[in-house]
Amino acid sequence: MSKILRVNMTTQKVNIEEVPEKYLALGGRGLTSQIILDEVPADCHPLGPNNKLVIAPGLLSGTSAPSSGRLSVGGKSPLTGTIKEANAGGITSQKLANLGIKAIIVEGKPSKGTYVLRVTADNVELIPADDLAGKGTYELTAVLRERYNKKAGVICIGPAGEMRMLSAGVANNDSEGNSSRYAGRGGLGAVMGSKGLKAIVVESDKTFDAPVQDKERFKAAAKKFADILLKHPVTGEGLPSYGTNVLMNIINEAGTLPTRNFRTGRFDRAAEVSGEKLAEVAVARGGKATHTCHPGCVIRCSNVYPLPDGTVCAPVEYETAWSFGPNLEISDLDVIAKLNYICNDVGLDTIETGCTLGVLMEAGVLPFGDGQAAIKALEEVGKGTPLGRIIGAGAAVAGKVYGVTRVPVVKGQGIPAYDPRACKGNGVTYATSTMGADHTAGYAVTANILKVGGFVEPTKEDGQIELSRNLQVATAAIDATGLCLFVAFAVLDNPEGLPTIVEMLNAQYGTDLTVDDVVALGQQILKNEREFNTKAGFTKADDRLPEFFYNEELAPHNTKFELKDELDEVYNF
Amino acid sequence: MSKILRVNMTTQKVNIEEVPEKYLALGGRGLTSQIILDEVPADCHPLGPNNKLVIAPGLLSGTSAPSSGRLSVGGKSPLTGTIKEANAGGITSQKLANLGIKAIIVEGKPSKGTYVLRVTADNVELIPADDLAGKGTYELTAVLRERYNKKAGVICIGPAGEMRMLSAGVANNDSEGNSSRYAGRGGLGAVMGSKGLKAIVVESDKTFDAPVQDKERFKAAAKKFADILLKHPVTGEGLPSYGTNVLMNIINEAGTLPTRNFRTGRFDRAAEVSGEKLAEVAVARGGKATHTCHPGCVIRCSNVYPLPDGTVCAPVEYETAWSFGPNLEISDLDVIAKLNYICNDVGLDTIETGCTLGVLMEAGVLPFGDGQAAIKALEEVGKGTPLGRIIGAGAAVAGKVYGVTRVPVVKGQGIPAYDPRACKGNGVTYATSTMGADHTAGYAVTANILKVGGFVEPTKEDGQIELSRNLQVATAAIDATGLCLFVAFAVLDNPEGLPTIVEMLNAQYGTDLTVDDVVALGQQILKNEREFNTKAGFTKADDRLPEFFYNEELAPHNTKFELKDELDEVYNF
C-alpha cells in the first residue's frame, strides 16, 4: 500500500513505485540516507543531475504518536559534500504518511523551467510553474494553498534555493501557513533548486490516520509516551513555557554561548534576547510564547513573534536568536526576528547565515553589533548581488572569499549555538557527525549543561566521546521515527521512554523490535552515512574542529578544545 | 657557508641558521616540500600563524648552468589545502644562491603592519613598510629598486596577496624590473600576505658565482647542456622564435584547446591570439617576440608585449593567452594582454583568474566573449569589492558562490590550457598531482601532442598512467635543480640530457650521484608531498577530474575522460 514517488526532472515523468522489501522497515533519516547511499554516486556534483533529493516522513509520522511529525529531507549536500539529512516540523510529514507515501525521490535535472509537484490521494502531477519563479516562501505558500488547497502542506524553496545557494534550506509550513519550518541545514534547498522544483504541494485531509496494525495497543503506548513527555521538566515545562529560546540564559550562564564569532562564552546582553524576554514581547504584541509546529505535538516549543512592521516571524528559535544575536553582538530581538524572517522568506538556513554574517563581521565587511547593516546585507541575497551570493554560500565560502582564519565550520557547515570549548560533548558531535557541525546530531547539551541523562562535566574531556557516540546513535534512530528530537530529553531520563517508542513501532508495524534493534538501527544509519562520506573522500582529518578552537581559550572557563585523535573512537561500535 | 634565513613575523626577528645535514643535498621544490613536511602541521589554517612560506633557489641556481634560474616558493596552499610548490623565473633565484642562501623560511604572523625583508651580502633586515601597503607589483618593484638597489631582485605580492585572496601569486622581476615572473599557482601570495610581508629585496651583484667544487668539469658540462638545449627543435627553435604561445595553434590543431569554459576543443579564432600573431604585433610596437626572464637562459621563451596605452606586459604566456582567450571566447590580444597586466599588477595567478572568469561567464555574471566586461570585472579585484573578492578566490569558490556545476578544477585549483579529454596524459597529471590541477607537474603534452620523448595517443587511455607517472617524477627532480622545466623537451629526446644534468650537480657539489639517484630524488619529493596531503585529509577521491569530463564528450575528437580507479596506480613506485 505504501509507495515511493520517483520524480524524474530530466523527463518530467513521475513513477509510482512499490516500496522494496529492504526499505519497508525504514523511515525518515533511516530511509533518506539508505536511498542516497544506494542511488547517488558519492563523487557526483551535488547540484548536477546525478544527485537526488529524497523526502521521507518518519516511521511514526501520520499516527497519533505525540510529536511525531518530523519530515526528513536528504541528498548529497552542496555545502559539505557529505551525505545530508535535515529534518523539520510542519504539517507535510503527517500528510505524506497519510497518503501512504514512504518517500519522494527527485532526480535528474531539466534543461530549464520551474515546476511544482502536486500530490493528492488520487493523483501525482508535475506542473510547469514559471510564474512562481523568484517568489519568497511566504507568498509562494499562500499562492499555492489558494490555488490548490487551503489546508495543503507546501514543501518549497525560496529564491536562495533557486539560485542554488549552498545554505539554502527546504521549507514547509505549519497549520497557519507559515512557511518557516525548515529542513535548513546543508543546502538541500539548492539541490531542490538545481532540479527546477520550486514546491511540492501535499494535499490530505487526514493527519493521524496512517495505517496501524494494532490500534488499541498503539493508542495505549502513544498515551503513555505523551505522559512521559509531559512529566519531564524540559519537555513538560521549560520548552512549553518559553520555547527553545529558554536556552539563551541557561547557555549564557553556563559560559558556552558563542559571542562575537566565537570569541567569548558569555554575552552581557543575553537577557535582552532570551526566551523569557521573547515570550513577553510576543504576547504583548498579540503573538504566542509557544505553539505547535504540527498537530499532535505536546511539547509546543515553537512561538509566534510579531514584528513592529506587522510581519510575523514564527518561530524565533534559540539557535537563530543566537546566530543573529550574541554571535553578532546584536541584542535587539526585533532585528533578530527581522533577519530570521528574511531568511525564511528568501530560503536560507538561519544558523549558517548567522555564522556567515559573523565571518563577514570578522573580515570587517560589516561592523559587529550593527543590526541595520546586517539586515541591509541580508536583503542582498534575494537580489543575487555578489555580496548576497557570498552570504548565501555560507560561512566556509565567505571565509575563503575574505581570507578569514576564524571560521567556525566543520566539513564546511557552520557551528551552532554552543561553544565546543565549554560544552565539549557537543564539540565531539560537531567534529565527528556525518553531517558536518550539527548540534542536533548528538546533542550533548543534555548531560553537559542540562543534567539530563546524567552529567558529564562540560569543560573536561572525560566521557565526552562516549556521550556523543551514544547520543549520535540514539539521534539517528529517533530521526528515523519522525519523532521530534526533543523527546530525547524525556527518553534519556525515563527508563520507560525508549521501550515505549519501541512499543509504538511494534504496534504500528506488527513487528517484534527490541530496544537493541532500535540501537542497531541508529548504528546502521550512521554506518551508511559514513560509508557514503568515505566514498566521497572524507577522512579523520575532516573529523576535527577548526584550528582556533584548539589554540584559543574561551572565557569565562578559559578552556580550549583538546580532543583530536580520541575523536576517531566515536565510530567504534 | 650556505645558510637558512628564518624570519619570524610574530616577533619580527630574523635568525640566520646553519643548513641541517639532511637539507644539504636539497634545493628548490625538493627543499621547500621537505621543510613544509617537517615544520608545517598539515591541519593548520593556510592563512594562520602555523603555516610557513619557504623560498628556495634550485640546486644549480646561481651557477652558469643554462636556464637554471628558477625560484621555488612553497607552503600549505590556501587554494587547494595541499602542500604547494610554485616556481618562477626572474632574477632573484640566482641572487639568493649567490648570497649563499639555501632557503628563506617565513613563519608566524604579526598582529598588524606591512614589512619588507631586505637581504644583502652583509645584512638581513625586516623593515616596517606601511607606506607600501596596497601598491601594485609594478610600482612596488620600481620603488624598492629605487630605494635600495637599482638592480635588486624583488620578491613581492600585490594587493591581492595582501587581501589574502586564494589565487594570489608571488612575483619577482626580470632584469628590466618587470614584476611579472610569477610563482603564481595555489595562492602562496595570500600566505605571504597573511604574514604581513609585502616584499623581499634581494641584493647581489653576482649572478653566476655560486660555489662550484670542480669549475672546469662544471663548465664543460654546462656547455654541453647548452648545446643539448640549442639543438632540440622545441628549446632551440620553437620557443626561442615565438615563446610559449607557439603552442596556441598547435593545441588548437590537436583539438584539445579548452574553449568556452571547456565546452569544445577548438577555437575558430585561435590564430588571432597565437604566438605567431603575438610576435608580429609585439615587434611592430617595439616590443620583443622573445627575451630571457633571467640571465643565462638559452631558451628565451618570454616576450615583451606593448599595449596600445603604452603599458607593457612581459610576458604573455601561452597558458595566459588561453585562459583569457579561447577559454572566454575572447580573440583580442590587447584585451588578453590587458587582463594579464592587471593580474600581474594586482598579484593574481592568470590561469586561475581565467578559469574563474570562465565560471562567472558560465553563471551568466559576464557574457562569454566580452573582453571589456572581463577587464571591468578584473579591475574590481584591487578595490576588494565583493565581486573582486570572488574573482580573487579562484574558480572553485566562484563555482560555489554561483552554484555552477561546470567548474574545471582539481583539488580546488583551476585546470590549465589543455583539455584532459583529448590530452589524457595531462588529465592524469591534473587528477593525481600533489599540487591540484597543474600542467607543469607532469607535462604529457610532450608525448601526447608534441611527440617529444615518444608518442602516446592523446585520446586513448593506454599508456597515460605510466607517461604521467614518469613525467611527474622527472619534473619533481628538475624542480629541485632550479632548471626551467622546458629543458625537459631536450632531455626527453636526448639520452645525454639527464646524465649531463647529473654531471653538473656532481661537479658543483663534489657528489657521486647517478641518474638513478635523480629519479629517486624525484620520487622522494612526490612521496613527501603526498604524505603531507594524506595528513591533510586528501584521498583517492580527490585524485579525480570533475564529473563533467567523465560525462560530456569533447569535440572534435568526441572523447570523454574515462580513467578513474587506474589513477590510483600513478603513485605505485
Looking at the overall shape, the CATH architecture of the domain at 3-202 in chain A is: 4-Layer Sandwich
CATH topology of the domain at 3-202 in chain A: Aldehyde Ferredoxin Oxidoreductase,  A, domain 1
What is the SS-derived class of chain A? alpha+beta
Assembly status = homodimer
CATH class of the domain at 3-202 in chain A: Alpha Beta
| Beta-strand content estimate of chain A | 5-15%
What is the molecular shape of chain A?
globular
Main sheet of chain A? 6 strands, mixed
Distance between the termini of chain A: 35 Å
Helix content of chain A: 25-40%
Number of strands of chain A: 17
Radius of gyration of chain A: 21 Å
Q: Could you give the order of strands across the largest sheet of chain A?
A: 2-1-6-3-4-5
Total number of helices of chain A: 22
Describe the structure.
2 copies of one chain form a homodimer. Chain A has 22 helices and 17 strands. In chain A, strand 7 (115-119) and strand 8 form a beta hairpin. Chain A has helices at 28-39, 92-98, 137-147, 159-162, 188-194, 215-231, 233-242, 247-253, 275-284, 318-324, 333-346, 350-362, 371-383, 386-392, 395-402, 424-432, 445-450, 464-481, 487-493, 497-509, 515-535, 547-551; strands at 3-8, 13-18, 53-57, 71-76, 83-88, 101-107, 115-119, 124-128, 153-156, 170-172, 181-183, 197-202, 288-291, 302-306, 312-313, 409-410, 413-414. By secondary structure, chain A is of the alpha+beta class. Chain A has a 6-stranded mixed β-sheet with strand order 2-1-6-3-4-5. The first copy, chain A, starts with a strand and ends in a 22-residue tail after the last helix. Chain A has a domain at 3-202: Aldehyde ferredoxin oxidoreductase, N-terminal domain (Aldehyde Ferredoxin Oxidoreductase,  A, domain 1, 4-Layer Sandwich), CATH 3.60.9.10. In chain A, helix 1 packs parallel to helix 21 and helix 12 packs parallel to helix 15 (395-402). The A-B interface holds A 42-45, 47-48, 50, 78, 163-166, 190, 193-194, 385-387, 389-390, 393, 397, 400-405, 535-542, 544, 546-548 and B 42-45, 47-48, 50, 78, 163-166, 190, 193-194, 385-387, 389-390, 393, 397, 400-405, 535-542, 544, 546-548.
